[in-house]
Amino acid sequence: MIKQTNELDQERQNLLLFIWKKRKIIIIGTVIAMVVAIVVSLMITPQFKSTAIVFPAATSTVSFSEQRNAKAAAMDFGEEDQAEQLVQILASSRVRNRIVEEFELIKHYKISQDDPNKNFKLGKAYDDHIQYTRTRYGSIQIDVTDPDREMAAEIANRIVDLIDTVKNEMVRERTIPAFEINKRKRDQLDSEKVRLQEHLDSLSQLGVVPTESRANLFQAYNESKNAEDKAFFKEQIAINALHGASYDGLQQQRDERIIKLTKFEDSYEQSESNANTNFNHKFVVERAVVADKKDKPKRMIIVLLATIGAFVFMIFALLVKDRISELRKAA
What we know:
The chain is 69% helix and 8% strand. It is rod-shaped, with a radius of gyration of 42 Å.
């Protein structure tokens, strides 16, 4: 154990002695690397970051049902599932294409329209400058970095606004067909109710009365004072005997249509609301503001890392060179 310790101390001393002997070369190489790092860091275009934070909403609809879920109120914040869905929407081409078009990002990122790989380069540049992150609190953080500090804030806020626009478009792709089906069904029930009512009205004009009123016809016939009244009520009794069953059947069908139509109103109103209302799918916690300080590059860190790296590399390279020289002499 003592021998190993002595050997280790000897190696350290040899390394320090080697560094001292080669100090001029190491210092020159390190200084050159530091100067190069300073020049390169100064040539890097500063990037400014703007950040917006939103929470997904728990629900994006108005419920007309009495049995709606109490946790799905419009005032409730969304949970993990809603946050993941929102990230997917933000990362979709529906949002990306609009941002690229509105802010002319192909031109802004200096990508040639004639470049055969322009879409790949645009996608990479877009992903490098715009990121979506789900935080541990369940919110979505939208980070936009750009050399133009004002554009970075504008892009971030525009993305926030597009959340509702894009999601409403996606929702309508499903809700409008559903509403049209509900509307056709409602119109059909209403049309059938009107048709049945018209038929009932035509029978009523003939003198047909509801079931509960027919017994009165016999009473009126028996209480008639003259032959003319008796003839009238006798005719009414005959008409009701002939058409009464049809009247009762039509009346039952009409009542059934009215009940169906009444029950169907909730479904119709729900589908109409879903198809025609622009819902808010988010809570905006913080809108992006114009950054007053650059986010990157961190010039001090670049210079420091480059200097340390150059120092270590010079020692390693000199050790390798010295060892190679020893091996050649031994050979």
